[in-house]
Amino acid sequence: MDTSLMTTSERIEDNKAKLRVEVPEASLKPALDATYRKWANEIKVPGFRKGKVPRQLIDQRVGPEVVREEAFREALPNFYVEALQSQELEAIAPPEIEVVSFESGEPIVFEATVDLRPEVTLPDLAAITVEAPDTSISDDDLAEQLERLRDRFAELETIGREARTGDFVVIDLKGYRGGELVEGVSAPELLYEVGSNQGPPKLDGEVAGAKPGDILKFTDTMPEGGDEPGGPEASVDGPQISGDVSFTVLVKEVKGKKLPELNEDFAKTVGEFESLDALKDDLRTRLGDYQRQMAEQQIRNLVLERLIEASDLEAPERLVEEELGHRMGHAEQDLQAAGMTLAQYAEQNDTTELEVRSDMKQQATLSVKAELLLEEVIRTTDVKVNDEDVGREIAYLSAQTNSEPGELAKQLASSGRLRGVVADIMRRKALDYVVENVNVVGLESPDSAPGQSDEAERELSET
Longest C-alpha distance within the chain, in Å? Predict the structure, then answer.
């Protein structure tokens, strides 16, 4: 009994083909048997135990064509894959299927329009040159870091002058609506930084220039959404409040920052350094390491851009549209969470929805090209992912999500997402390979100097 599919294919575009597949009844038999077994367990017929209902009764109850259609629907993905393999074609997106013939007792015929992986030719990597960003540390860079450290260790002292941006004020903040106190936007003895934009939208402008003892009164419109800048949630606990609120603010104190002197004592306070010069040396080393890390990431981005530019690859429109759909969906979700529409976002950025979509489509096109080129690197080189690579990635993800690595690994495996994790590692390693084989000009090698200050480390990480 012949169970082989009869498959032919024809190219209808450069990267698209149409398969015509003839499925003999014998090829459908395993799926038919499985479907009858399923129905035998699901329908109830008096006098027959569950799972023992004869096919004739199932046909009477359900209909033989319904069973046949269900069996074909279940078997179709396997038929499609078998047809692809027989024609040695590689699809890059789900096909468009059309059933041409479904006559009882005759072979089933279907056609599949398939988007094919384009032929990708990698450009000569040795001919690609990228200039590394400057990683030198200037005296101004070091001075800026020292000022940041001084600000971190500053103390607040009460001052008699008016409040200015960067000062702190101690205030009694009271919000009223209809004469009633609104708890969600009220707070006694609130220590507030002028210019931080963490209170009601008008608060910074009102307290700037105020002196101790001043009583300020104003009406403000509270924005919708708890995550928007200017909302009171950052400094006042309570429910989210929106709409007009009348505020009364009593300014009790104005406090300014008193920066510590840059001397030996400061160095010892920061990280038990023996001298101010030792602190400077440590900061310079840490800042240099940080700059090199940023430069390496910039180099990777530049190399990928040059790789795309050097190739003559055309991104398949189907993949571009799918990538664009994902990007637009995520963008609209983010905007919705921020209480905005795409039209409002476009207006705020002095553009149009059409231009936003056009920019996103351009980004999607570059992303698809990068994906295909990196896949070709994987196909043509010895780039591999081993258990250690996966273990490190899971350890990193578990740290990011505060989960246990073993449990996270099980969740990824059971949900099918582990393959995606492996694919991400493969693409990173493919880009590593490209970076190693292009010409990177001007990247300095790091100096190995141990650091001493946890405060300095945290400061640089926020730069």
Answer: 100
